[in-house]
Protein: DUF7674 domain-containing protein
Amino acid sequence: MSYDLNILVLRQQEPIKVNGGKIDIVNERQPDCSLRYMDSWDYVKMQEGIWYQLGTDDDGFWSAMGIIDANFSQAVSLEKQKGVAFRHKELELYPVIVNDEYKTDVEALLYKFVEASPIKMVLFLARLQGPEDDLIYGTVKTEEFTKMLEAGEVYFNTAYIIKKNCKAYNSLLLKTFPELIKAFHKEPLIDCGLETGPYIVYGCLLEPFIERNIQLGKTERVKKIFDFIENLLNSNDQYIEEAIELGVLNDMKAASFNVELCKPFMGKKTKQLMGYADIE
Structure:
């Protein structure tokens, strides 16, 4: 029996070189590295991004067996596994054990790969011989996932979608515009507090905030808002850029107020995404 340890960096277009410490890393763009499973894991393998595999080379035998092991004495039935979409309840899952020598390297690689994703999300799959269905745990923050891994609560043959913590983006918005704090706590769609995705938080709060300040003629406040938006759009962080574009600017295009009044306060990239042709 052999083990595979896979990380799919979602939406990544080109592979990156990563220092894995004691772990060797290959990616699907390397010659003779067809890592995506041919006849199984259909949902997982169709995801856009770069697929990496972690392992060690033992006298020409590539495997993750030196890095991870299975705790066969602590099997969990699929029926009791929270967060997993499944069909075969009679199957059992085995906890992933990361060998002590590699724990630090595995954790560091998780953070590096999440940061390397344009949307700050990766898919983690430790695989051994067993079910070939797509068993999906769902999304979990990097910090939470590493704690689950340490506690023996991450299982083989289950795909985990690991994402960056959203708190920093939402905290930045509320720190910059403290007058939004009350609306933040009242908005029903912001149901996970600071953990709510920025797409929802920024979409729910910024567009009506802009409209209100335009109607009140508070030009300095409007300029501050669009300076904030422009800075985020030029942050080289595709995750927050997409949240702004989809959650805020797209809503503005369909807004009931005269968006043309906002144009003098917009930066170059904001104008471009709003579809204004006369970009200076």
Observations:
- The radius of gyration is 22 Å.
